[in-house]
Amino acid sequence: MKSAIKSIQPLGAQWPTQDPFLFCAFHNDVFPEGNQEMAPKANLSGRNIGQDFSGKDGWNMYHGSKVPGFPAHPHKGFETVSIVEKGLVDHSDSLGAAGRFGNGDTQWMTAGGGVMHSEMFPLLNETEKNEMLFFQIWLNLPRAKKNVAAHFKMMWNEQIPIVTIKDNNGLETTFKIIAGEFEKVKSLAPAPDSYAADPDSEVGIWLIKANPGSTFTLPEVPSNVDRSLFFYSGEQIEIDEQIVAENKAIVLGDQSSYRIKNGNKEAHFLYLQGKPINEKVVQHGPFVMNSNQEIQEAVGEFQRTQFGGWPWGSHEHVHDKSKGRFAIHADGKIENK
């Protein structure tokens, strides 16, 4: 019998996705204890500071020089869905908006017509290691929404719906619904101009945790929806009569339901689905448009305007060490958690 699975690929730092998604960046760093400046309490010699992706000692500085993370950089023409299951992210942007989020929170940012932002990873714990588990999903925008106003929305961990199901043996699987719907439970609304804001786009983003030995089912989807399952932690699963080891991207090949039997370890998955936009994608770093000419125009606009300029004292801006989880939006709205 021919398998309904299109492909099974190994996972790296950037996971391959299907239209309407562009890719998923995965960060799992076990940072050392932090110091008073929220920087690693460790010797940084031997690291390529400014471009540290070596994984030395189980963590990276990325583009940060003192605090790990990604200093100010532009985005235009797409969206980022930043799911931070462990650790914290300090967000600052060219609209004057800011926030500190993580430990289960998600930030949904529609870059649209352009925004510059920084994403730094403050190490607040000075007595224990600081673990970061962070997915950043790049979701494309259709041509009609490439230039909408930039906007971000916070989905705080306490508000994100979680569905727990039990198999015939009473073993549990949980589904954290970032986008879409599962078992008639709907996610929080995404950012207002998001591609996912239209129910017809069928965008689904779920985090799935399966107990050892448990069985669960991915429901069927409409015929024009593509979907992928990223098995990033566990032992092995059985799907469509195949045994698949951890650290694999599974591209599901038809729209029927899939029964998945977990192995002997707790398993963790990211699930993505969506209706393809089916438009030409031209990408130049953090600019995603529909033609080379539009890319040139986007780069030129950024060079002229810096998408509003940078209102913070440093391109590696971090918030005060005493701050908890919070968000300040461009319209002045404040959220504290």
Automatic annotation (TrEMBL):
Q: Cross-referenced InterPro entries, in alphabetical order?
A: Pirin, Pirin_C_dom, Pirin_N_dom, RmlC-like_jellyroll, RmlC_Cupin_sf
Q: Where is the Pirin N-terminal domain?
A: 61-139
What's the superkingdom here?
A: Bacteria
Domain Pirin C-terminal, residue spans: 208-308
Q: Which CDD domains match?
A: cupin_pirin_C (cd02247)
One Pfam family, short name please? Pirin
Q: Give the family this protein belongs to, as stated in its UniProt record.
A: Belongs to the pirin family.
Q: What is this protein called?
A: Pirin
Instruction: Give the species.
Output: Cyclobacterium amurskyense
